[in-house]
Every structure is written in C-alpha cells, then in structure tokens.
Amino acid sequence: MKAAHAFAADNKTYTDRHEFHIKRGLTARPMEVLMGDVHTVDLTISAALSSKFKKLRDAAFDAAIAGEVSVKAWLIAWMDGSSGYMWATPVITGPGQGITQQDVALSLYEVLTCPWGGMPGEFMIDNGGEFGFLAESVIRFAAMAEISGLGVVKCRPYHPEGKARIEGAFGVIARGFISALPGYNGGNILKPRLKSRGKAIASYDRGPDRLIEDLHLAIAQYNGTVQQGDLAGLSPKAMLSAKAEATGWQAQRIDDPYMFDLVFSREERRDVRQGTITIGKRRYSGSVLAEMIGEKQVPVLVPWRDPNGPIILFRDGVIHHLTEETFALNDREGAVRKSAMVGLQKAEIARRKATGAEVDVQKMLSDAADLGPVQHNAPANWSFNAIDKGGFIGAPISEAEAHARQEEEDRDFLEEYLSSKRTGRREAGGGNHQASLNAT
C-alpha cells in the first residue's frame, strides 16, 4: 500500500524507490550528447551583483557584506556524454533575478566556440524555461548545415536515465572542491553547517571577481581529477582526449560569433516602415531596407546572446545586420545618414518603375470593382401593348354585348335625369299654390 500511496501522492518518492530504471554508460565519441543543467552554488553570499564595471561590482559586494542586499550564485553547466568533461559559467544574480535564456546562450557560446567542444549531435536538457530556445535553434542549424539527426531531448523529472551524470557531478564538485571555499554551507540553506555551536559560518568574503575565479577553478579541478567507475581511473579531461584520439573526432566548432547568433536566435516578423523595422521600442535600420520599401512580415532574427544588440536579416543568401541608430540634435552625421537612405530609396523606386509594367489606374480600379450585371431571379413577364379604356381587351363578353350594356347604362342615366327634372317641376308648382292661398 505504501507504493500505491506514493504512486498517487508522491511521484518523486515512487520514482526514486520503486520505478524500474536502466543504466546508461558513456557514449563512444565525444560530443555525441551534450547535457545541460543549472545548479545553485552552495555558498552563503550576502551579495555580489553582476556588472561589467569592476568598481560597481566591488561596491555592491561591500554593501552585501553589510547585509544590505542578498544574492545567489549559480553554475550553468554543460557536460560531454563521452567523458563527463564539464564546461561551466558562473552567474551571480541579485534580488528578484534568475537564470535567463540570454545567460544560457552566453554559456553555450563558450562550448560551441571551444576547440574541444563544438556543436553536439544531441542536446539533453530539462524542461526549464531557460533552455526553451534550443529546439528552434537546433532545427535552424540542422537546416543550414544540412545535418540530419541533430536534435534536442528533454528529460522527464525524477528520471536519472537522463541527466543523472551531470547532476551527480554537481554533488562531486560541491563536496570535493566548493566545500574548500569559505562560506560553504553544506548544501542546505535551511539547515546550514555551523562553525561552532550556535555560530553560523561566515559569508564568502573574497569579492565578486575572486568568487568567479574560485568557481572556475573548482570546475577545472573536477575536470582534472581522476575518477573511478566509467572513467576507470582517468580524469574527465583525460577521457575526452583519449576518445578523441581513438575515434579521430574533431570538434564541429562555430568560431564566428555572427554565425552563432544566426543559429541561436528567435525569429520575429515585422513590416518595413520608413526604412526601419521596429521590435519593442527599438527601431533598427540598414541599407538593405531601402530595397524593401513596403514589404510586409519580413522575418528577422533577434540573437539570444545579445537581444539588445544588432538584429539579423537573412536575404538572398546574404547576412545583413540591422542596428539601432540615434543621432544627437547637432550631429551632422544624422543628416548624412538620412540623405544616403533617401537616395537609396529613390533609386529603388526608379528601378521598380523601369522594370515594372506601366500602371493603368483605371484598369486597376475596374479590376477591383464588380462591373458585371446584377444577379437576379427569372422575372414573371407582363406585356403592355395598348390602353383599353373600354375594357374590351381580354373582356369575357363580346363586342355586341358590350354595346348593348353601354346603351342600357345610357338609358338608365337618361331616365334618372328626366325623373329628377319632373320632380323639380312638381315641387315648384306646389310652392306657388300655397302662396295663392295665403294671399286670400
């Protein structure tokens, strides 16, 4: 019954204790499978905000030591399925921040441009939203490079057949290497290790730059340390080298950042208006847009690595980079740029006039209008040939009968008239007689 209860109420417990699992070993060739995962670094850090300005990072770190801000450290890691060799990118996030698709793209860039990394045959990742862009990007790369079989596998939760090796490696790195750093809390932020009875371990206090160096060093120590099991006394780095030599494997590297952006980007479709394409609140322009006056739903690519940088327009086999341009009020380069673009647009209009057929406006209007007859049902015909005031046409009686009827009507009218005349005379005679009587 415990198993039945776990199956119904606690999927993780059931999967860990009861569900059948298979064992998977290393792949024969390097980079046949590349596993990706995100892991929280088990260090107690008051704060270390990420910035490209060293002074700002140091100031943020000092504020954190004072307890003003709390932050987190992460590792975005990628592991070769043939050796367990790991690439990892440390990420330090501030309050309310997390790992984004841009962070993952920047981390993956380091793998795909590495001479002993490159594009894998298959990605194996979890269902986290930060990896959501990979499927579309891999399909695009496979089409461009004419590679079949390239794909993305999303692992099911609580199933160690998937990313168990990389998740186990995180444990090895934490216990064997990160545990040697100051501020290691034992991996349980709710119940951390204590320096002594009732006294918590001090925070990591070496500064943000040193923190990143220490995390990179921990990964390098892991890659260079001998392991047993599948590695049979070799380090992950040594196993990668051995399998590359044994199989003659060469990295399928993307060494051009623009090529990386062409693959790992999201597609947007926009209309060309005033020689620009707008995405969000940004307006992008480029000379190629002068040739695309009035075009609708033009596909462009927004790189995941730098979504606020130039966008990509792939047209007729040529890669064009569209940039956001802003000129100061007194910058004469703005007028020069406008003049150049307007000139290109006029040249495009002239080209269209020269190569296109002459436009017949009336024909266009007629083609757009319905000039055909009115659609109607068949009418009931009614003929009209003469005016029949006597009622002869179509009458149910003969002509002689009609004349006799007319004579009868005339006699009736005459008798009525004569009768009215006689009545009038009698009334007149009676009036005179009465008058004579009154006189006597």
Automatic annotation (TrEMBL):
One of its GO terms (molecular function) is nucleic acid binding. GO terms for biological process: DNA integration. Pfam families: Mu-transpos_C. Residues 401-440 are annotated as: Disordered. InterPro entries: Integrase_cat-core (IPR001584), RNaseH-like_sf (IPR012337), RNaseH_sf (IPR036397), Transposase-like_Mu_C (IPR015378). PROSITE patterns: INTEGRASE. Residues 26-244 form the Integrase catalytic domain. SUPFAM superfamilies: Ribonuclease H-like (SSF53098). It comes from the Bacteria. This is Integrase catalytic domain-containing protein.
